[in-house]
Structures are given as structure tokens and as C-alpha cells.
Amino acid sequence: MDTETLTPELRARIDAALETDEHLALVVMPNWWWASPAVRFFIIFGAIWVSLLTVMTVCMVNAPDTTEQDYLFLIPFWMVGIGVIVGILGCRARGRRTVYLITDRRAIVLRSKVLFWPLKPDMVKAVEEHRNGYGDIVLGYKSYQINNKPAPDGFVGVPQVREVLAALLAQIKATCAVAYQPVKWQTTELTPEEKRKAARTFGILGVFAALFGSLFFAVGLYMFIQHRQLVQEGVPAEARVVQIVVDYDSDHGNSYFPVVQFTDAAGKSHTVQSSRSNRNISKGEQVNILYRPSNPQHFEIEGEDATSFSCCFMAVGGIIMLAGGWLVVRMLRHRKRQSAVKAS
Description:
By secondary structure, the chain is of the alpha+beta class.
């Protein structure tokens, strides 16, 4: 970054970090908040997690038999989702306030507190280059580990890492007046074969996710169509709850399916069981129903919100289907790029 384009606030922060007669050579703003693969993973994971959890919560709110235990069951999942969101926003805020400085004396990391490394020939421990030209210039290591390796510290997520490294090494040489030690260079760029295998793996996962999401979406769409047809063709009737069928489930709690008895427009009596659990209805209660004349077994009890339930199914399926489709598109684009490279 050109030092002449610094904002007054950033200029003040930099001036406060510099020592007397210390001259600024280069200012670098990191872009690791989005470019980092780990951050991208958590953004995608958090978006899918919160979307699915929102849909699940809406389904439970609209279900007539939802209990307090059901809502308590969702609390840990929402804590995970909120934690991911807060972590991403915190990472973004930290990244926007982070500045890397190269002076004639030190390499400085300017965040909430100032970290610095005096210029010396062996100060650069390693350099790791990632995709899109950004990378890490490791000047030290933190006290904890990541993937059984010491966590790097220094200029992390530097754009145009080769140019920044060249500027730092040039400053080291000019300041120390001695040749600097060779830098251990690492790269996370995948080989063409590794890229092909990764694209194929993600493509296969995308196909399965798209098929699974399509199944969910189709079920929700079928339920929605059935409900709309019942609304259009259905005949209202009064029914009496003659029995409550209890389905015992040790994991989620019991489900209660009312059995109603009613007489259709032709005077024929029917005793049918609802396909939806409803713990708010008791035996002997009079309820209003809507049934299909051609198939009286297909009915709905007044007050049951079938539309939101089917829409939730379609939303869940749609999210999974879009995620799977995105992975498939990535695989196809990769194959197209590989074919173009081979053709050239």
C-alpha cells in the first residue's frame, strides 16, 4: 500500500507504533479474512447450518405437537450456529484492523496490540504460498498448534506474498549489511493430478447432495400439491375424536395421532386416523375437518398448518440441492479448464 494513501486514522495508529526516527518502508493490509480456505469453509458451513436450523425451527413452531423439550433440543445446535457467525464476524473485524508494517528496524504486526520482530538475517522462518497469490511470511510461532504443527505468526494472509517477501528481504539486507539466510519456501498449491482428484471427489459429493436434496424437495412439493388440491376440492365436515393412537419414541418423545369419525355428504360413516401428530386434541373432542369426496381417507383437521410444513421440506431440499449443484458446477468448470489447457 502506498503510504501516501493512508487514512488519517490508520496514519495515527502507525505513527503511535513507530519508534523515534524509525522510517516506514511498506504498509500491507491482509486479506486472509475471506481468502483463507479455513474461513471460506466456516462461512459455507455456517450458512448451510443456520439455514437448515432455521427451517427446522420453523417446522417445530408450526407443528401442533411440539413440546418444550423439543425446543430445548435445538438450543445446542443454535449455540453452534451463533458461535460460527460470531467467530466469522470477529475474524472479519480483526482482519480489517490488522496492518503489517516493514520499517528500517522491524517487521510489525499492528492489531489491538503491537507485535514486532527486529530485522535480522534469520528472522524469516518460512514462507507458505497459497492460491491467488496470497500467503504467509512466518516470523515466529504461537504457543498452540494447528493440525499438530505450531501455529504460524507474523505476516499471515499477505496479498502478493512474493513481492512483500522481496521487500522485507531487501530491507533486511540494507539494514543488517549481511547476506540473509535462505528462506524455507512452502506452497499449498495442488498438483494437476491432486486438483483433478479433489474436483472429482467434490463432484461425487455434489451429485449425492443434489439427489438427496431433490428427494426432500419432491416430498415437500408433493405434500404442498396434495394440500392445495384438498383445499380446492375438499368438503368441510364435523368429526369426533374417538381415539388417540400413541407412537412411542424414546429419542424424540411420543407422537399422538387422533382417530376421527365423521359422516360424509352421502351419509356414509368413516373412521380414519390422521397422518399428523397433534397432542393438542383429546379423545371425545369435536373438530372440524376438510376431506376429499373421492378419497375420504385424505383429510386435514382445521388448524393444522400443512403449507408451512411442506414449504419447510422444500426449503431444506432446496438448500441441499443448491449446495450439491454448486459442487457439481465446480467439477465441470475444472474439467473444462483442464481440457482447455490440454488443447493449448
